[in-house]
Structures are given as C-alpha cells and as structure tokens.
C-alpha cells in the first residue's frame, strides 16, 4: 500500500518511533523521514496525554471504521499465515521467513495506525484547536497538527500548497492580534517563513518538471493574500504598518520570481542551478536579454 499517506518503509519506521515514544525498545537506526514523522508522533502523544473535549461525529466514526477494515483486508493484517509460506524455506532462508513476515505485518499494522492517527488528528479531535490564537492553550496543538499534515503530504507540490495555506492562517491570526506589536510581528514573521518555504517547494517542482502547476498555485495565493495583507494597513500604528509593508514586499518578490520561472519554462530554458530562499533563480529568456 504505497499510498499518499505512508510507504511501507515509512510505516515501519513510524511504528518504531511510536514504540520508542511509549517507552519501548530503542531501534538504533536513523531514517531520512525521522524529522517529518517525529512531528506526527508528537501529535499522537499530545492527543493521548491531553484529549480535547471534542465529540467525534458518528458518521466520521463509521467511515473511518469501514476504511480501516477495508485496508486491513487488502493488506492482510490479522490474516493467518499461509502454511506453505513457513514450509517452503529451509536452512538460512527458511529461518528468516518468520522475521520477514513479522516485519511486513508490523509495517501493515503501522499503516493502519498512521491512517487512523492522521484521520483523527486532522479531523474531529484537531477541530478543538482550529481557532486557537498565539498564547491560547491549544495553539501548540494547532501548530503540531500543521506539522503532522506536512508529514502526511504525498509530494513537494502538496507540501508547498500546505505551507501557503498555513500562511493564510497566520494572516488571519495577525488580524486578531493587532495592537500587540510584538505578537503582530511574530505572527507575520511566521507567515513570511511559511510563504518562503511553500514558494521554494512549488518553484522547485515547477522548474524540475517544466510544469507551471505549482506556479498557478502561487498566483492564486498571491491574489487573495496581497489584498488581505494590505487590509492590515488600516487602523495600524506606524510600527505595524512598517512591518506589514515588509510582508507586502515579500509578496512582490514572490510574484516576480513566479513570473520569471514561468517565462523560463515557456522558452525552454533548462532548470536553473542557482537558488535562494524563494527557490530557483531563472535566467532571462534569450529574446529578453
């Protein structure tokens, strides 16, 4: 089940990290996915330790149960081992079969855990923190859920779009903390950081694939974001206005970069080697030089 949520290898590593987090035996291995999966493990621990008082919708419960049962049947989780599987191996190969079968069953089980944890964390339970603001008790849960979404994303294109979604969320938060200069600046700093991360991922995908899909996502984001950021200038003091202008300047830089990459793709230039915080820095098309 190499799904959008977990590959088998990531699922097995996720199971190991869950074991370790719950006091189980440590596995002396490292995976490139550890940093991403750690965020999801942290969400699972936080949910178990401090369950928000949220009622999970009955329809969601039914749908999740059906999905897990179908996945278990498809992946063979809980099915008895076939007799011939254990009997066909002899010597060293035969002695390894039970271990291999156990690891596969573990990975399949972890896939179900991942699907369930992801579905729950990103639906009914995490709803309690959706409207949390900086300083609220559930704000950490809100940000942890966002990191879990990134860990579950299936591609850089999806992760880039998620970062832009988070930037929209930070903007909504900034509008509610106006008057608190420090809080306002911190939230806009986080917003700008999300924009840079998302744009870098999307422009990189666009240049690598010569596909403007990521650029289209950026253009759609810019349209609403520039208008909303400009709205922060109303009734703001000079400190907040100066900080807001910095975010508007970043949006202008993003628009320029996306347009430059779109032009480079259109005229068939190879993917640029140089890059910065916004991703690849394209050369001008020959006709524009």
* Average pLDDT taken over every residue: 77
Proportion of helical residues: 55-70%
Biggest pleated-sheet summary: 2 strands, antiparallel
Order of helices and strands: HHHHHHHHHHEE
Give a concise summary:
This protein has 289 residues and is mainly alpha-helical.
List the helices and strands and how they pair.
Blueprint: H1 8-21, H2 34-49, H3 58-75, H4 83-87, H5 91-121, H6 139-152, H7 156-176, H8 181-209, H9 213-231, H10 238-266, E1 275-276, E2 279-280
Structural descriptors:
disordered N terminus; two-stranded antiparallel sheet; 289 residues; mainly alpha
Descriptive overview:
With 289 residues, this protein is mostly helical. It has a two-stranded antiparallel ribbon with strand order 1-2. It is globular, with a radius of gyration of 23 Å. The longest helix has 31 residues. Helix content is 68%, strand content 1%. It is built from 10 helices and 2 strands, in the order ααααααααααββ.
């Amino acid at each position: 089940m190499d799904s959008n949520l977990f590959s088998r290898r990531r699922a097995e590593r996720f199971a190991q990290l869950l074991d370790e987090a719950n006091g189980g035996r440590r596995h002396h291995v490292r995976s490139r996915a550890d940093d991403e999966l750690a965020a999801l493990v942290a969400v699972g621990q936080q949910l178990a330790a401090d369950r928000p008082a949220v009622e999970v919708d009955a329809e969601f419960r039914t749908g999740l149960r059906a999905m897990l049962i179908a996945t278990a049947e498809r992946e063979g989780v809980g099915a008895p081992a076939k007799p011939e599987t254990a009997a066909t191996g002899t010597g060293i190969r035969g002695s390894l079969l039970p271990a291999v079968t156990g690891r596969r069953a573990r990975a399949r089980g972890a896939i179900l855990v991942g699907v369930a944890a992801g579905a729950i964390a990103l639906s009914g339970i995490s709803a309690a923190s959706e409207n949390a603001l900086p300083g609220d008790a559930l704000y950490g849960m809100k940000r942890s859920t966002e990191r879990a979404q990134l860990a579950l994303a299936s591609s850089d294109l999806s992760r880039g779009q998620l970062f832009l979604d988070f930037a929209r969320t930070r903007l909504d938060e900034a509008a509610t903390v106006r008057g608190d200069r420090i809080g306002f600046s911190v939230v806009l700093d986080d917003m700008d950081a999300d924009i840079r991360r998302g744009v870098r991922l999307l422009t990189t995908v666009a240049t690598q694939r010569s596909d403007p899909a990521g650029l289209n996502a950026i253009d759609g984001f810019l349209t609403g974001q520039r208008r909303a950021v400009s709205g922060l200038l109303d009734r703001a003091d000079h400190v907040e206005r100066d900080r807001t202008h910095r975010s508007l300047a970043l949006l202008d830089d993003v628009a320029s970069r996306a347009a430059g990459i779109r032009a480079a793709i259109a005229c068939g230039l190879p993917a640029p080697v140089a890059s910065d915080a916004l991703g690849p820095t394209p050369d001008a098309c020959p006709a524009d030089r």
